[in-house]
Amino acid sequence: MFKRVIAALALLAACTSTPAPTPFSGPMVIGDSDPVRFSGRQPTTFPVRGMDAARFQTFVDWPRAKAVGIEFVFLKATEGGDLLDIKFKDHWAGAAQAGIKRGAYHFYYFCTSPEVQAQFFIDTVPRTRGTLPPVLDMEWNPFSPTCQRRPAAATVRDEMQRWINIVQAHYGQAPIIYTTPRFYKENELAAFRNTEFWLRTTAKTPAEAFPGQKWTFWQYTSTGTLPNTPGAIDINAFNGSTAAWEAWLERRTLR
User: Fold this and answer.
1) Cα separations (Å) of 173 from 118, 130, 142?
2) Where are the beta strands (DSSP E) in the chain?
3) Is-contact 108 137, C-beta < 8 A?
4) Does the annotation mark 159 as catalytic?
5) How much is the pTM?
6) ∠ Cα 218 85 232 (to 5°)
7) DSSP letter for each residue of 29-83
8) At what angle do helices 114-124 and 153-171 cross, to 10 degrees?
9) Is 12 part of any domain?
10) Plot region of 227 (φ>0 → left; ψ -120 to 50 → alpha; else → beta)
11) What is the pLDDT of residues 163-203, one digit of tens each?
12) Less Cβ crowding at N or C end of the chain, within 10 Å?
């Protein structure tokens, strides 16, 4: 009787246990389906690399991303004054569980005040010790069905600074500016002299696309690949050594 009970309990445990993850047979590397040969230093030579993700990344195998060398991720949290990225909470939790340094970004909308947008971001993104500084994503959106406003450069910079001031006061760290070559040039963003930049340039180096601009992060491809993660991924490089990365984290993560 005792043996039958033990056997029954073993069978029950087998039926209710969590199934093992599906083995992955693909290459365990950060890949690129359409790599570019840059004229200067290749982004793949930077020792610290990361990614960004939004609702378009419906599934990310975070443990495998960490295993192949993804050290950080910036996640889309909000857009405008009321649009929450539907995958933000899942990505936020998944990255943390895998031990990947995470931060959140806000996509700016030119038909809502910066004060409203800043408060929406604050209401959405937790102030968690050890997370990366907030990011302000500044680029023109020609596909917006609700807002085609393009303010003058001085107005753009004023609105940016108002958003930055509010968000910095809440999180205790100065936000990073993400931008594109066209937006940077048209709005004279070089005026933000004491601000860190995350620059998108997938055909030229930052030195070619943003002459004279210092940068911390470089988004160098939108066709990256990761094991067991479907679709294309934006891959980024940190501008520095592994030791510089650790020092940057010590200085710039939330307290």
Assistant:
1) 14, 11, 31
2) 31-32, 49-53, 70-79, 83-84, 101-107, 135-138, 176-179, 197-200, 217-226, 229-238
3) yes
4) no
5) 0.90
6) 45
7) S-EESS----SSS-GGGSS-EEEEE-TT-----HHHHHHTTEEEEEEEEEETTTE
8) 30
9) no
10) beta
11) 999 999 999 999 999 999 999 999 999 999 999 999 999 99
12) N
Answer yes or no: is 160 within a domain: yes
Report the chain's mean pLDDT, rounded to a whole number.
Answer: 92
Number of domains in the chain: 1
Look up 52 and say whether it is catalytic: yes
Domain region containing 55: 29-252
Catalytic residue (one of 71, 79, 90, 137):
137
Out of 32, 52, 79, 196, pick the active-site residue: 52
* CA–CA dist 181, 67 (Å, integer): 32
Amino acid sitting at position 146: T
Q: Which of 139, 132, 62, 136 is nearest to 93 (CA)?
A: 62
Q: Which residue has 């988004």 as its token pair?
A: 219
237 found inside a domain: yes
Q: How far apart are CA 216 and CA 42, in angstroms?
A: 15
What's the pLDDT tens digit per position in 220-250?
Answer: 999 999 999 999 999 999 999 999 999 999 9
Q: How far is CA 182 from the centre of its chain?
A: 20
Q: What CATH code is carried by the domain that includes residue 190?
A: 3.20.20.80
Residue 7: its pLDDT value, please?
47
Residue 20 makes CB contacts below 8 A (sequence gap 6+) with none
- Catalytic, 137? Answer yes
